[in-house]
Amino acid sequence: xxxxxxxxxxxxxxxxxxxxxxxxxxxxxxxxxxxxxxxxxxxxxxxxxxxxxxxxxxxxxxxxxxxxxxxxxxxxxxxxxxxxxxxxxxxxxxxxxxxxxxxxxxxxxxxxxxxxxxxxxxxxxxxxxxxxxxxxxxxxxxxxxxxxxxxxxxxxxxxxxxxxxxxxxxxxxxxxxxxxxxxxxxxxxxxxxxxxxxxxxxxxxxxxxxxxxxxxxxxxxxxxxxxxxxxxxxxxxxxxxxxxxxxxxxxxxxxxxxxxxxxxxxx
Length: 267
Hints:
Elements: E1 9-10, H1 16-29, E2 33-35, H2 43-53, E3 61-66, H3 76-87, E4 94-97, H4 108-120, E5 127-130, H5 134-144, E6 149-155, H6 163-172, E7 176-179, H7 191-200, H8 204-214, E8 218-219, H9 226-234, H10 242-249
Parallel strand pairs: 1-2, 2-3, 3-4, 4-5, 5-6, 6-7, 7-8
Helix pairs in contact: 1-2, 1-9, 2-3, 4-5, 7-8
């Protein structure tokens, strides 16, 4: 598979023309990694923006995610085919299981086995998981082998550093993608982040994103404003010092933003 680009454009909560405009602007600015999901209800809009952009398909990295309702026996592949139809693509670069089956009603081995079959059939270049705990990752490794798990996409930002999970993933050699890397703006209000930003002549968002990037995570922030999309992308140029990184590390307080009722028991 292609290497997962470290900087992506998230599309969670973006609907209709807003989704089209955000992705189109992102592609104009140089984003080449677009992250969507079945449940976002915007795969068709993402596909439209990609088609309109004129960017060559082999320059793009497109991720989608299989929703929990499609984890049942025989549902993974048809649902992915439907996603491809909406996206207007023959295949995606990465398909993730969006959440483990609620209450583990469906075994990890079953739906990951089906997702691996989707890869074999050429519907997706790579497969991975999202919102998987250590226990779920162990099951995933047992089911398909660690080399098949391209990433675990989880909530990580300065206020929720998810260290237990991060340590386990690193021990296993599993890449991590940090979603909600700005915790919906909560991170930007932190005085310590603001202080570091001022010292670097950067924005608080750029500091938070640089913190994730320097740890080897892929980040997928979203925005609807051109200036924010451009500023976020520029975070890749910012280098934080060891002192900066340590100061941000001290902000961890387990503050989770994404915690729906069907979420697993977190580590």
